[in-house]
Amino acid sequence: MATTAFEGGQLKLYKVTTGSPDTETLISMQVTTSFSLSRAAIDITNKDGNDWEESIPGLKSGTLDLTARIDTAPATGKMGIEDTFALFDSGAVTRWRLKGTVGGDEVKLDFEGWVESHDLTLDNQAAADVSLTIHVTGAVSITID
User: Fold this and answer.
1) What is the per-residue pLDDT for 101?
2) Selecting from 2.30.30, 2.20.130, 2.170.140, 2.40.30, what CATH number does the domain 7-37+59-144 have?
3) Integer Cα distance of 110 and 112 in angstroms
């Protein structure tokens, strides 16, 4: 199977507010994004396995790691330090959308998750480096338009 990269590094994370239509709030100035999915192994090793471990696939899980350079005074419609900290502080499950372009098509990965960690590095400028880890909860859906 051929793999096509997201074009121009345009894979971006948005907080989604449900509505008609949904509202997307961009986490601006994203530097890196890593979306990892995994599946647990359920051990079914038995005496018939001739000393070989045996397993079957178990539950799926995922995390999204993001680093962004966020303005301390963000533009309208973009998240600032107070917004990302509030998401961590609340512990609330939030809707997220990871979106980018592949081969001319828009690809969306929609999921729910809560902010597991929030790391903040401030410098002497009007910006901060924010690193978030979002723990995925529930199913991930993929849409190609």
Assistant:
1) 85
2) 2.40.30
3) 7
